[in-house]
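Supplementary Methods, section 5.1.

A reviewer requested that the exact input to the structure prediction be made available. We therefore reproduce it here, unchanged from the version used in the analyses.
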Amino acid sequence: MNTLIDPSTIEIDASVINNIDMQSKKIFRTITFCKKTSSKALYDSFINSTNNLTQLLSIKNAQMEAETEEELKVYHKNLNKAIIFIANEIKNEIELTSQVQLFQLFRLISPESHTQHPNQYRRALVQIGGYICPNPENLNSLVSQLFYNLEQISHPVIKAIYLHHELIRIHPFIDGNGRTTRLAKNWILMFNLYPPIFIKDEFEKKEYISALNDSFKMLEKNNSVWNKNTNLFFNQELNRVSNSIQYILEEIKLNLNN
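The structure derived from this sequence is encoded token-by-token as follows.
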């Protein structure tokens, strides 16, 4: 792997993106114009539903990689710290735009690994399934290229999914790549007023891993053409965004009816 996916080759059904945007706007229309209850109550309902979703995100992210109950507790604790960090950055109107911010997430998510390799990318080859990740000497240039490519993508949801796919493919860190990547993606989403997304169960986890592996294999054969396997991964992620939006809308409606 010498180059990343050229953003100009991405082919996503515009109607899917339009639907996500329309559904997302429903949340804010409901909060702003609903006459059934006060705007403050609706706002509180929105904040509570988003916080619940963020809590689910932390738990699900931890479950994705934890193998024991003790690991789950540690992962969950570290992920909560990282989510609080992201929330404070967003409050200060700070976007995810640099490698430095990735290292900040890595330090919070995998503090022991960061202590062993402070502010450094991995120094050894790693393999994901049948896919061999890039050589360590190429990591800095690839992550730099990734952030350059992100600037070429106008829609934040596509930008977030692109970052997820390519950062996992680069696999820059010695540990915690999945957790770091999923939170980096959600930083982009939440900064742009979309809800965070997560893998909800074991079945979806298998689909997610399979789609990534198949995408990576196809891209090894031809990195310059948009393919069905990469398209499948992007569409899975788009479905997760839609599901999170529906979760928030249902929580608000539930509070309205109580």
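The domain at 7-252 is CATH 1.10.3290.10 (Fic-like fold). These observations are discussed further in the main text.
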